[in-house]
Write a structure and sequence with these properties.
Distance between the termini: 64 Å
Helix content: 55-70%
CATH superfamily of the largest domain: ABC transporter type 1, transmembrane domain
Strand content: 5-15%
CATH class of the largest domain: Mainly Alpha
Largest sheet: 6 strands, mixed
Radius of gyration: 36 Å
Number of domains: 2
Length: 564
């Protein structure tokens, strides 16, 4: 509970406390409605209420004077008023419970999403995207279930406590025996299934992660799956995992319903004990007391039995969901940030001074004591063998990945720290193409509102996309489909280039921007960029034909960058 409370924000804590107060008041109404059954039952059996239950005579006298009627009529009136008010109040509580439950789920999901988006790029390189998605979607749902379980436990324990206090007040010995009997057998039940619930909860979590990973990989790699005739094998693997999921959740669902059968037997046994004790140990005449006593205990059992079932079931549900609580708690230990754009700089010069970089958990240094100066207007081509670290160098230069040592200095005066990057000061065309399932207009501008027609047309023209637009059904408002499904590989790359130019056409970094383009189209796009005097351009390419276009060619070799 401590971890859950620490995850709650202040508004959720206040709402939880408010709900607890409402539940306590609702228990008071339940207890009052039950106590009003006593005078009704006693009066119907022609017994003397004040003789059988002297402890409640003061309350009966008070209300009898107010209503100026006999005991049974007064009790019926109060009972009816209490039931109506209690049911209306219960409806309001149900609304507040549902609202709190859904709010906890969605707010926690938003906070996790924010936590992941605000983490640095290195975190995402080390993380499995399917695991992050599972945590945001599934683990928050189970976290919410654990909160709902706590609310249910709290609600029903308050109800059970209230009714138990009433019964202890009227029948101390009988009630005390029943409570001890119930606690003992509840403990036995929970103890028996504790180990299985813990194992099932961890198994459920493992399967959830595997399912998400398999689905994500399969949908993203559907082309290769079809080409490799792997559909059957992948489907068989998914069926195996899915059937295992069904098995574990079926057993868990069965365990949640088992308390009903178990405690029905328990309550029936308790009632038999009540009857036995009432017949053998009450001082009053058996015919006078037995019916009111059994009736009150039966009415109490009608309320208490479902409550006990829910308490035990909720304890099981809480234990089943608890790994999700730990998962969410661990992720939210990282200080949440308000995501703001990085500082924007007017870059005239970048200096890399003694920069050393190596990947985590490796001893090999990708760069060592690297020194490089990039001036405004430079046109730099970066080449090197595959896997030598060209893309990583660009990430370090931009600040997506941080060097082990050394500094990146902007304009001879600004040193980037571990929290800063240059993503708001330049444009970056990544090697991996990423397009949104939205319009061409959005994929270039990355905005639904801000739109500069002149900048858009200029970017489209430079990226050589002018001839594409007339072929699109709705022009620039045509939805490109998932991952740009309606475009060719080369067209997708050109959209990425247009996006970069729309954002910033004075400092451009490009990582293999023409790998899906033919030589003629590549030259049509790259040459105008090189001719643009006020543009600083750094480009990575395996195409050595570009060397004749660039005045400055750098090569990564032996953890250094050499000019050739």
């Amino acid at each position: 509970m401590k971890k859950i409370w620490s995850i709650f924000d202040n508004s959720t804590r206040i709402e939880f406390i408010f709900l607890s107060v409402l539940l306590s008041f609702n228990t008071l109404l339940e207890t009052i409605s039950l106590s009003l059954l006593i005078p009704i039952i006693v009066s119907l059996t022609d017994n003397n209420l004040f003789e059988l239950y002297p402890k409640i005579s003061i309350f009966i006298d008070y209300f009898q004077e107010i209503f100026s009627t006999n005991i049974i009529n007064m009790s019926l009136i109060l009972f009816g008023i209490t039931i109506i008010f209690k049911n209306l109040f219960q409806t309001y509580i149900n609304f507040k419970e549902a609202n709190l439950n859904m709010r906890v789920q969605e707010v926690t999901s938003q906070r996790l999403f924010n936590a992941f988006l605000s983490r640095n790029y290195s975190f995402h390189l080390k993380s499995n995207s399917s695991d992050l998605i599972t945590k945001i979607r599934n683990e928050t749902r189970y976290f919410s279930q654990s909160v709902l379980s706590i609310i249910t436990i709290l609600s029903d324990l308050i109800l059970i406590t209230g009714i138990s206090i009433l019964l202890l007040f009227l029948f101390f010995k009988l009630t005390f025996i029943t409570i001890i009997f119930s606690i003992l057998f509840s403990f036995i039940f929970l103890k028996i299934f504790k180990s299985y619930i813990n194992k099932a909860s961890q198994k459920r979590r493992d399967i959830d992660f595997k399912k998400t990973q398999m689905l994500q990989e399969s949908i993203q790699g559907i082309r290769e799956i079809i080409l490799s005739n792997m559909s059957k094998d992948i489907l068989d693997n998914y069926r195996t995992i899915s059937n295992s999921y069904v098995k574990h959740l079926t057993l868990t669902a069965m365990l949640k319903k088992l308390p009903k059968v178990y405690f029905e037997f328990l309550i029936l046994s308790a009632l038999i004990i009540v009857v036995f004790v009432a017949l053998n140990y009450f001082e009053f005449d058996k015919s006078q007391v037995i019916l009111p006593t059994i009736s009150l205990f039966a009415a109490s059992a009608f309320k208490v039995l479902p409550a006990v079932n829910r308490v035990v079931g909720s304890i099981q549900s809480y234990k089943f969901s608890f790994p999700a609580v730990l998962s969410v708690y661990d992720e939210l230990q990282h200080k949440e940030k308000i995501i703001l754009p990085p500082q924007k700089y007017d870059i005239n010069q970048i200096n890399l001074i003694d920069v050393t970089f190596s990947y985590p958990n490796t001893s090999k240094e990708l760069f060592k004591n690297l020194n490089l100066q990039i001036k405004s207007g430079d046109k730099i081509l970066l080449i090197g063998e595959s896997g030598i670290g060209k893309s990583t160098f660009l990430d370090v230069l931009v600040g997506l990945q941080k060097p082990d040592s050394g500094n990146i200095v902007i304009n001879d005066s600004i040193t980037l720290d571990n929290k800063e990057n240059l993503t708001n000061s330049l444009s970056y065309v990544s090697q991996k193409v990423f397009l949104f399932n939205k319009s061409l207009k959005f994929n270039v501008t990355l905005s639904e509102e801000d739109f500069d027609q002149q900048k858009f047309e200029k970017a489209i023209k430079t990226a050589n996309l002018i001839n594409l637009i007339p072929n699109l059904k709705d022009g620039i408002n045509t939805n490109l489909g998932e991952s740009g499904a309606i475009l060719s590989g080369g067209q997708k790359q050109r959209v990425m280039i247009a996006r970069a130019l729309y954002k910033n056409d004075t400092f451009l970094i490009m990582d293999e921007p023409t790998s899906s383009l033919d030589s003629e189209m590549s030259n049509l796009i790259i040459k105008p960029l090189i001719d643009k005097k006020d543009l600083t351009l750094i480009m990575v390419s395996h195409n050595e034909d570009f060397k004749r276009l660039f005045k400055k060619v750098l090569k990564i070799k032996n953890s250094s960058i050499l000019e050739i």
